[in-house]
Amino acid sequence: xxxxxxxxxxxxxxxxxxxAGRVSSYRDIAHAAGLPNGARQVARILHSLGETENLxxxxxxxxxxxxxxxxxxxxxxxxxxxxxEGVKVxxxxxxxMERYSYRES
Length: 105
Known about the structure:
By secondary structure, the chain is mainly alpha-helical. It has helices spanning 6-16, 26-32, 39-49, 75-84, 97-100, and strands spanning 24-25, 60-61. It has a two-stranded parallel sheet with strand order 1-2. Helix 2 (26-32) crosses helix 3 (39-49). The longest helix is centred in the N-terminal third of the chain and has 11 residues, at 6-16. The mean pLDDT is 94.
């Protein structure tokens, strides 16, 4: 089993806490992990550990509700996965954050 730094463990826990049918932003995950300026770190962790740690990577999007991934780089899969969980994603790849956003209490 891999050993991770505490900040990484906190980010992993925050990502795993986002339930199906909801989304969170890179910024909100960083805040939940105690890293108020850690949005880029969240993105790096999702990129490097998303698959190996079986993370619900598709539930993490930009704070303005847009999908961060570009066409051909996982964007279509992310939209498909979100829609399969009941999240409405616009044709432009935007999610209504007021309706679908999840923040840990």
